[in-house]
Structure formats: structure tokens, C-alpha cells
Write a structure and sequence with these properties.
This protein is about 75% helix and about 0% strand. By secondary structure, it is mainly alpha-helical. The chain has two domains: about 90 residues, RNA polymerase sigma factor, region 2, helix turn helix motif (Rna Polymerase Sigma Factor, Chain: A), CATH 1.10.1740; about 70 residues, Orthogonal Bundle (Arc Repressor Mutant, subunit A), CATH 1.10.10.
Length: about 200
Amino acid sequence: MAVPAESLPTPERKTASTTDNTERDQSRAEELALAIAAKGGCVDSFEQLVTRFEGRLFAFLYKKTGNHHLAQDLLQSTFVTAYRKLHLYNPKYAFTTWIYTIASRLTINHFRRKQPVETEHADRAVETNPRSKLIASEKAMGIWSQVRELLPESQFTALWHFYGEERNLAETAGVMNKSVGSVKVLLHRARRRLAEVLSKGADF
């Protein structure tokens, strides 16, 4: 009996999926190569990294600050700081995680330097000012450092973007150049590993 045409496998979909994976792998390899070259002193490579990341970083900073001009200033400061500290970048870790960490710290420092709010607005500011949240994020950096030591790079990166940067699955997948399914697997494995460590009484 003939098999209905609609039940036949669709090689086009498989080919498209394979192509997507190849493109993601190529993108990751290109970013790593650019980061290593930039660390070695290649200005052109760093400029290419700026082009790749400036849109995503601006969106991240705008979400943190709610201010277009401030986000733009912090974006520029992030790239300046990253360029000055390229000698500290460890290619073992994703360049994405490294530069987003710089952006987060600069945002925290900005709000720390802000002048205290006027007394009559103090009570309301405790809940509405992002400064308190950002300081709390800084304290959490110590925990993230410990988590990084426990997890493989890919699991840590997925966990960082999903929880640390409050991205959804699709956004995390986009930043990591992976499929949503792959991100789900990484998050599951990371959570399971941390649960095992906590069950043994480890203190974070």
C-alpha cells in the first residue's frame, strides 16, 4: 500500500536544522577566533566583536537602566573597559559571558556612584530605584564565581544568561548560538549538578 505523501519524511527540514547547527558552530568559532586575535593586539578583530555585540549589549543595558542615553554611555564604557582588559580574557570561557559581566559590573558601579535621593522620596525609592537590585546582583557575583568552578562552560553560560541576565529560553539560545532544545538540556544538567552539590551540604 502506498504511503501518503504527507507522512513521508521531509528532508528539507532536516537539512535546514543541520544548516542552522553548522551556522551556530561557525559563529562560535568566529567569535572565539576574533577574541583571541583581539587579545593578541588585532584592533580590527576587536572592532568586529563590537559590531557583533553592540546591539545585544545595548538591549541588555537598556533593560537594566530604563534610560536610552545612560545605556548608550554604559555600552561605550563596556567596550572601552573590555579593550583595556583583553589581556585578562580567558579563551576557555565564552567571550559573550565575559563582556556581559563587564557590562553588569559597570552598571552596578554607576548606580553606586549616584547621589542619594532626597529624604522625602527615600521610602518610595527603596522599592523603585534599581540601585538596590544591582548591588544585590554584585553580591551574587561571589556565588556565580563558585558556580563557574562547578559547571562545564556551556552549562554555566546557559545558567548565567537564563538566571543571571534574566533572559528567556529563546534569548538565551540566540546569545549562545544554540537551539532552544539544547539550552533546555544544558539548564537541566546544570540544575541537577547544583542540586547534587547542595544535597551534600555545600555552602554557597
